[in-house]
Design brief:
alpha+beta, about 35% strand, globular
Length: about 100
């Protein structure tokens, strides 16, 4: 399993439009093979920062996700809203559930 933390810093005044444009992508991604979870969160105290928290069965599934049709539509719809983004891929050797 791998984890992805994608932090998106948005241009002021675009958060609601971004969330609306991302909604179909969330639905489509959750239906993808290999997607364990895919959620979008607002960062507390940073109104223009959103964070995608993802879990995938493998890096191959994540790679396929990047070219999924709903991802292409999402990227095009949001490209002018994004100030910058970082994507972190975490491949843990072991995960303990408490």
């Amino acid at each position: 399993m791998i984890y992805v933390i994608a932090t998106v810093n948005l241009k002021p005044g675009t958060v609601e439009d971004f969330v609306a444009a991302a909604a179909p992508c969330l639905i489509g991604t959750r239906a993808e093979e290999g997607c364990i979870s895919y959620d979008l969160h607002r960062r507390e105290g940073e109104p223009n920062t959103l964070v995608f928290v993802e879990r995938w069965e493998s890096r191959e599934h994540l790679k396929a996700h990047f070219s999924a049709p709903h991802m292409l539509v999402y990227r095009e719809a949001t490209k002018d809203m994004v100030a910058n983004r970082t994507i972190e891929i975490i491949e843990p050797a072991k995960v303990d559930n408490l």
